[in-house]
Amino acid sequence: MPKLGTGEQEYTGTDDTKIKLDPVVLNTIFGHGFSIGTHKEPLQYYLEYFEYSYNSLLPAENSAVSVDSDLEIKITEIHLGVNYHIERELAGIFSGIGISSLKEELNKNDGTWTFETYTPYIRFGLDMIFGSIRIRGEQLHFSFGNHYSKTSILGIVIVF
Predict the structure, then answer these.
(1) pLDDT in tens, 116-125
(2) CA 118/CA 127 separation, integer angstroms
């Protein structure tokens, strides 16, 4: 569940034109993702894919629209990173760093605008350990362009 702070940012249209837009987040953002990796004490290396979307308002004060317009925004992230774990019998904590490939698409009936970038991130979290199954809660923090994201993740990790 990301919390997204938005700012004016330059997007590329389907006809390769550049435009500055400042979308406003209208609702709670939810998404899904998966992770695959390897764990060699005390490090975990992983590759992750996340996708989430939300509704947004594009105010009429920019050159893209003449009236306030609703947008559907889709964000796709691919993360490559490493975590440092400290574990005991029933619990563990970790922190990590990595790089994210991010694509943001703003879709409106008469056009699509995109923003793509690579950005570093930090993460930290907790694991509750039940044998080979772990319940994980974590947060990722990063900025992309003039946007800021704090993503809270709750998931299940299966260790082979």
Answers:
(1) 999 999 999 9
(2) 28
